[in-house]
Design a protein that fits this description.
Layout: E1 5-9, H1 15-24, E2 28-33, H2 39-44, E3 48-51, H3 63-67, E4 72-75, H4 89-101, E5 107-113, E6 125-126, H5 137-150, E7 156-162, E8 164-166, H6 172-176, E9 191-193, H7 194-207, E10 213-216, H8 224-235, E11 252-253, H9 256-262
Parallel strand pairs: 1-2, 1-4, 2-3, 4-5, 5-7, 6-11, 7-10, 8-9
Helix pairs in contact: 4-5
Length: 270
Amino acid sequence: MTTTKISILGTGWLGLPLAQTLVAQGNRIKGATTSENKLDTLQQEGIQPYQIALTEKDPEGPIACFLEGSEILIINIPPGLRRNPNGNFIAKIENLIPHIEQSTIERVLFISSTSVFADQEDFPIITSETLPNATSNTGKQLIAVEQLLHNNTNFDTTVLRFAGLYDERRHPATMLSKRKGIKNPNAPVNLIHLDDCLGIIQRIIQTQNWNITYNAASPTHPPKAEYYSSICTQMGIPTPDYDFNTLSKGKVIDANPLVDLLAYTFTILL
């Protein structure tokens, strides 16, 4: 088994199990967190821990040591613009890039989001050829960051846009359960299970598919109201209330190009 040296910037809901999986496969993993309390957890999992925070100036923490010696950097940091609408995620990545350029990093995997595509009334099928057209602040900043990384010739970049993330412990149905007047009840659902997120990232690393952009979502897309009402019933929690009086907007994320290029089979369907 070949050992790959990987730095993972962001070891939360997705990043921690990813690091654990890669360690179990014999890779050498460095993991960055913003929380001092989490350093011991990373260490116990065989992950070399670093406390690092991206800022709109220079990254805080031992960024050079975190990157040095690794071949791959996985950037798994959410923009955080819901909590801080005035935040500048673009500036955070702009200030990270010189550190990547000065390090041993050869390849970057940027975890993005299918929110770079706007919802529309005709539920367009989003393919690998579809140009991002987000109107939201988060979507626009993600588009700009994707371009920043792709345009840099000092390292190879693959962008992986995930649809809504979930697993058995964190299902969006629990958040929608008691809400009233939920918009877009007829829109197609675009979700992806944590297990498939991990599987796809592993395939990208194993097959060395770089300088590509992937859209990743479960290949099944039931209507929102039908799907979440069914899940809530299965969980034994109240079903949501929907606004059927307003025209629904949405989209369908087509993951077939990813399936073909990576020879990947989704393990969890909706």
